[in-house]
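REQUEST ID: PR-0412
SUBMITTED BY: lab tech R.K.
PRIORITY: routine
TASK: structure prediction, single protein chain
INPUT:
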Amino acid sequence: MQKIKPLILTGSISLDRIMNFAGRYRDLIQSDKLHVLSLSVLIDQLTNSRGGTAANIAYNLSMLGDKPVLLGSVGLDAQAYLLNLSRLGIDITRVHISHLPTPTFTVLTDHDNNQVGGFYPGAMSDIAGLTLKPWYETDSLVVISANDPSAMDQLVGEGCSHHLPYIYDVGQQVSNITTADLQQGLQHATILFVNDYELGVILNRTQLLPSQLNAQIPLIVTTLGSQGTRLTGHSLASPLLVPAVPNVHVVDPTGAGDAFRAGFLYGYLRHWDLLACAQLGSTVATYTIELSGTQTHTFTLAEVRKKHYSAYGTHLPK
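STATUS: complete
OUTPUT:
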């Protein structure tokens, strides 16, 4: 049986409030009134659910049968949340319980799946005990996803100092961390996970050309929504564009990127080729976007394999 190296998922564990309205931001925003911007919309759907980047990735991996380690910080109000994650086989023993409230993400999505969101960090700012020390001498893989900026910098530093390979998933903190910390995170990353917008921000802040960033990082995985995924980086002879699963009914795109990461990582840890990793990521992502909420869906590995075959016409590796 193939031995799978431990996966440590660092980042946010949060509560989500997801709102949807039938209109479009572009019809509401007056370009000549941006300096006095004030919007109010009638909400068609409101969903309160559990989320957070690291927790979402862990949740989807648990559906595939993996048992990652979760490293983050929550408040006392998240006890039931953690219990549910533990029941799924996720290792929560390294989650710090803070006196501050659990981080909360609030997002408003329009008809075109454009989003405006706000994140209250709460317990995420309390990083006491957040360290990779238990894995210094192990053959592990670390995911550094959106977290308190100082925590992200600390984890990057630990990864570099102790030669722990890490995946850099800066996400919604791409505009909040310092440029120096961003450059440090990129410089030593094994993989960079971004969406197209985040990639643009990175290139703008670092003043790097796409070719320069590709030369710096072995693998860059850029999710493009309905357009699929683009794989670049100096480990590839040429860019690889992987189509998304077709004919998906999108109810709520929140959490799609996290679900994609879970699928991709499942294959990556098993040394699958990158095409299969990206296809699995896209297949897993369909389950969350077809429902409102980031941890409201369920699936089995057998169901995913069947859905993947229907979409791509090939079988996933065993």
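NOTES: The mean pLDDT is 94.
REVIEWED BY: pending
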